[in-house]
Amino acid sequence: MNLVRWRFVLAAAAAAAAGGWLLDGRIGWLAAGVAGFDWAVASLFLRISDVPDDERKGVPGTDYVRRNAGMLMRAAFIALGVSLFGLRPLGWPLLGVRLAFHAVGFAYAFPTVVPRLKEVPGARWAVPVLLLAVSAVGVPLALR
């Protein structure tokens, strides 16, 4: 059972590492770690919000996610809070980029002041591309 969509986490980490290399001439391992972590948390939020769709599609592990959604939400928020606080010494720009990333990612997964962006035509594909660009360029730039 996968709680996280690892293909997206690995793609974002690789994009951030490459972005760091393109911007600084060295592989952005720290940027890769930050971007990968952020995508893992965002992916967990999305997995929780997708339970009704995943049940219809027969995605393995959906029953576990449905039964433990509250605990998984708390764990994701705690991990995110600890990482935001823990990486704060790396600078305000990184904190701003990460907060913006998670605000958009949360709006993509859950209905907030706008409808769930995943269900908005065009936004379903545009938002993940935007978030990947933030990971590939925004995180390495914020770490400079």
Shape: globular
The major β-sheet equals: none
Low-confidence stretches: none
Q: Write down the Rg.
A: 15 Å
SSE ordering: HHHHHHH
DSSP strand content: under 5%
Structural class by SSE content: mainly alpha
Supply the number of helical segments: 7
Question: Level of helix content?
Answer: over 70%
Total discrete domains: 1
Calculate the mean pLDDT score and round it: 93
Number of strands: 0
Q: N-to-C terminal Cα separation, in Å?
A: 37 Å
Write the layout of secondary structure elements.
Layout: H1 6-24, H2 29-49, H3 51-57, H4 62-67, H5 69-86, H6 92-109, H7 123-143
Helix pairs in contact: 1-2, 1-7, 2-5, 2-6, 2-7, 6-7
Can you tell me about this structure?
- The chain has 7 helices and no strands.
- By secondary structure, the protein is mostly helical.
- The chain has one domain.
- Helix 1 (6-24) runs antiparallel to helix 2 (29-49), helix 1 packs across helix 7 and helix 2 packs parallel to helix 6 (92-109).
- The radius of gyration is 15 Å and the shape is globular.
Features:
single chain; 144 residues; mainly alpha; 76% helix; 0% strand
What is this entry, summarized?
The protein is mainly alpha-helical. It has seven helices and no strands. Helix content is about 75%, strand content about 0%.
